[in-house]
Structure formats: structure tokens, C-alpha cells
């Protein structure tokens, strides 16, 4: 989590709309703030199909949006994915999200990242011959 926070240009936070913010999400936001908050941090609410009443859905969206704004900044973008149908999110919602990501401006450069070169290693394999 710390490694990703140091090199991220765009952050998409997947938030379970039925549950709310989890501890890991809040920890990741704190790590982002400590390493230099990238300019493009977005929230994506999922599992919105689990709400039975429209009023409960509106209240949850409003509550989670205000919480995200208090953690990031006023006006932070929050996208909504209603639910999974046949193993996929609805095409229109994914299309809207991808269109927004494709036309957004490049993020501002992070001073911390420019002064501290960093790379993320996904896997490491030791190929040295074992000694006898």
C-alpha cells in the first residue's frame, strides 16, 4: 500500500456503498497524504443495488460523498456503480467512468516523487546458485 501511494498518478478508491469506508481505505488516504496527495483521487461507490429504498440510497450517497469530501477536498469526484450483472458492471456506468478518465488533465507533479526516485517491484526471484 505504501509503495503504491508513493508512485500513484491517479487513485481510484473502490468503496462499498452498503458498508461505507473501511479501515484500509482510511489508512491508504493517510499514506497518500503523508507522501504527497496526487491531484487525481476519485471515489467509486459499489454495491448500490443492495439498497431497497430509494431514500436510503440517496442518504447513503450523500453521507459517503460528504465523508469523502472531508477526507480529500470539497468537490472530489465520486462515481457510482450500481451493481454486478452477469459478472460485469453496467456498460454505461463503466463507459462514463472511462470517458472521464480519458479526458482529464494530467496531474500536477509531486515534489516528493520528483526528489525521491522510486520503483515498485511486483515479484522477486532469487536465481543465485545455492552453496553446497
TrEMBL record:
SUPFAM superfamilies: P-loop containing nucleoside triphosphate hydrolases (SSF52540). One of its GO terms (molecular function) is GTP binding. One of its GO terms (cellular component) is 90S preribosome. InterPro entries: Bms1/Tsr1, P-loop_NTPase. This is Uncharacterized protein. It comes from the Eukaryota. The lineage of its organism: Eukaryota, Fungi, Dikarya, Ascomycota, Pezizomycotina. One of its GO terms (biological process) is maturation of SSU-rRNA from tricistronic rRNA transcript (SSU-rRNA, 5.8S rRNA, LSU-rRNA). It comes from Verticillium longisporum (Verticillium dahliae var. longisporum).
Amino acid at each position: 500500500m505504501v509503495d503504491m501511494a508513493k508512485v500513484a498518478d491517479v487513485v481510484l478508491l473502490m468503496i462499498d456503498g452498503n458498508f461505507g469506508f473501511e479501515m484500509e481505505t482510511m489508512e491508504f488516504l493517510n499514506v497518500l497524504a503523508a507522501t504527497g496527495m496526487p491531484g487525481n483521487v476519485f471515489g467509486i461507490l459499489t454495491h448500490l443495488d443492495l439498497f431497497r429504498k430509494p431514500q436510503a440510497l440517496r442518504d447513503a450517497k450523500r453521507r459517503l460523498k460528504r465523508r469523502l469530501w472531508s477526507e480529500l477536498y470539497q468537490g472530489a469526484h465520486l462515481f457510482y456503480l450500481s451493481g454486478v450483472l452477469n459478472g460485469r458492471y453496467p456498460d454505461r456506468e463503466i463507459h462514463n467512468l472511462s470517458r472521464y478518465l480519458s479526458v482529464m488533465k494530467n496531474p500536477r507533479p509531486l515534489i516528493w516523487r520528483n526528489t525521491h526516485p522510486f520503483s515498485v517491484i511486483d515479484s522477486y526471484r532469487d536465481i543465485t546458485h545455492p552453496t553446497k
